Amino acid sequence: MTAIKYELIKECSKTGARAGKIHTPHGSFDTPMFMPVGTQASVKSVSPEELKDMGAGVILSNTYHLFLRPGEDLVKEAGGLHKFMNWDQAILTDSGGFQVFSLGDLRKITEDGVTFRSHIDGSKKFLSPEVATKIQMDLGADIIMAFDECVPYPADHDYTKQSTQRTTRWAKRCKDTLTRTDQGLFGIVQGGMYKDLRTMSVNDLKEMDFPGYAIGGLSVGEPKDLMYEILEHTVCQLPKDKPRYLMGVGTPDCLVEGVQRGIDMFDCVFPTRVARNGTAMTWMGRLVIKNAEYTRDFRPIDEHCGCYACRNYSRAYIRHLVRVNEIFGLRLMTIHNLYFLLDFMRKMRESIMEDHFVEFQNKFLANYSH
Amino acid sequence: MTAIKYELIKECSKTGARAGKIHTPHGSFDTPMFMPVGTQASVKSVSPEELKDMGAGVILSNTYHLFLRPGEDLVKEAGGLHKFMNWDQAILTDSGGFQVFSLGDLRKITEDGVTFRSHIDGSKKFLSPEVATKIQMDLGADIIMAFDECVPYPADHDYTKQSTQRTTRWAKRCKDTLTRTDQGLFGIVQGGMYKDLRTMSVNDLKEMDFPGYAIGGLSVGEPKDLMYEILEHTVCQLPKDKPRYLMGVGTPDCLVEGVQRGIDMFDCVFPTRVARNGTAMTWMGRLVIKNAEYTRDFRPIDEHCGCYACRNYSRAYIRHLVRVNEIFGLRLMTIHNLYFLLDFMRKMRESIMEDHFVEFQNKFLANYSH
């Protein structure tokens, strides 16, 4: 019995792209899918109902942040993350590894785990494969992640090898800790920019037979061509009957490249973060709503977009709200960007179903400016 | 022909309280009514749909702020304020007088009008009865307000008399400026804390036969008893067949006292402002959601409240969101406070309709702690 089941529905005849469905204890969602990020048990500024309206079937939340505030014990007492935040569809939690390793000088790594200081009050904390898994069991997400080290870029072959092997040992300890049968634990492939280490990581993890595999350690500062090369090398070695998740990637061009190589799931704070900075995502590229040219522009952000913001409000109005720091402006921008990205994934999926993915990709790239 | 029509439906047999309906070119709303404030063409953090769901039939927006940003010409070009902000029900705009006079040293008053410096960029601006009325014609609200001076507290009899007489002369100039027949201009009674001057102001304004009368210059720092005394003295001299609007008042105790004396309309930033500071309004008094006692309190803010926040979220969750500065927390708090106040007015109106207003008032005061 496994909590997470991947159903492969259609493969592209020309690329690695594939359409599928992931079944979880809190409903199913179509893939390829983008997962909006609700760092602190809330996708910034929007409601669960708004997320459902835009077609989000799964969201991501962060173990590191919830561990610090409000604490996983409180979330457990509330009945778990779904109930706490009023979201009855699928949730994925990361392991906290990425955030902890990002703390730099504030953390110390041993084989056992990572000691670090809270970025909020400086208090001493400890995360390990066991602790991270137990926290995620208390939170109760449908998909949980193994505790790993995201190898920084650049890193030499020696360090990357040691780190990747430790990540594999940690994955085993996570698996041994998990006792809930309604949660699926994904292994995370590391290996930096070294193909031999990526292969090693994939093979080691495959032996443990996880219900899904994530690819970590990409989009960490390396050139995009290198990222795509490592991605391609890695994905094609992963089992076909399990979901594949590319962590921390969410710009349209990277999403297309990821799907082309066979990725099913993505997450990124990009669409919600740039929304709050006044940048709208469109099929043509980015639109900076604060620019003077939109002062008296009474068209919607995107005339072909079906989101709540585009159906009801003009660029001029949203620009006004953003300029005067009205919260509703951030909300409209966030709704637009998430809707755009979810719609983008829907259309990409449709193109795979109709075996027109390459045409979709070419048309997108012809219109999109970076 | 008049744009605004007041329909008196029921009078309390023991107090001055009354239930009615105000008809505007953008629909009708029941009175007594509280008007949520959308200072910059947005009721902070909430959508028009959310406002309708909680029963708001009229909102207020501020001429001073819209004059500075985005400018009334832009709003006019957008098709007016209703269309600009996607609100198809009634809107009231103030005249900008209150904000301009609040600028203190930054403004200079003459018989002609007020020269002031923008609080945003320091640029020199001018508002007068004619300018304020023309701006409000461009904005296109259903109910617009005469340009007045809100007499500060305390002020001596001489100054108050001069200022009040000027406000009356300005009201005449506003009336002469208004050419749109789909807007109703309300006169504003001033007179400070002096009964003779309040009587003078009422009589002078009544001669001009406005479709509604506001009472300004109260709730400006004077003791509440004095406010109620002046209010009572003023309201009973106003015509029965016109709506009466008490400006800038929005705490539950003041709303009850105002309704008791015959007020039909209220506005205040209080419910939305304290919401953003983490204070919820309830029938028992204020609830400070950040307090430690709510950390593991999984009940809603108010178990008897029917608002979206109380139907779906716990005190513990909302407390978490507010503590970690999540925008959705402000949204839930704002929704709760506005719903509470609109529900409070609905129940007060029902008590008038059933001639149980005094019982409502006594029961409310017995349970409410300040």
Automatic annotation (TrEMBL), chains A, B:
Residues 248-254, 272-276 are annotated as: RNA binding. Binds 1 zinc ion per subunit. It catalyses: 7-aminomethyl-7-carbaguanine + guanosine(34) in tRNA = 7-aminomethyl-7-carbaguanosine(34) in tRNA + guanine. Gene3D superfamilies: Queuine tRNA-ribosyltransferase-like. One of its GO terms (cellular component) is cytosol. Pfam families: TGT (PF01702). Residues 15-369 form the tRNA-guanine(15) transglycosylase-like domain. Catalyzes the base-exchange of a guanine (G) residue with the queuine precursor 7-aminomethyl-7-deazaguanine (PreQ1) at position 34 (anticodon wobble position) in tRNAs with GU(N) anticodons (tRNA-Asp, -Asn, -His and -Tyr). Catalysis occurs through a double-displacement mechanism. The nucleophile active site attacks the C1' of nucleotide 34 to detach the guanine base from the RNA, forming a covalent enzyme-RNA intermediate. The proton acceptor active site deprotonates the incoming PreQ1, allowing a nucleophilic attack on the C1' of the ribose to form the product. Homodimer. Within each dimer, one monomer is responsible for RNA recognition and catalysis, while the other monomer binds to the replacement base PreQ1. This is Queuine tRNA-ribosyltransferase. It comes from Propionispira arboris.
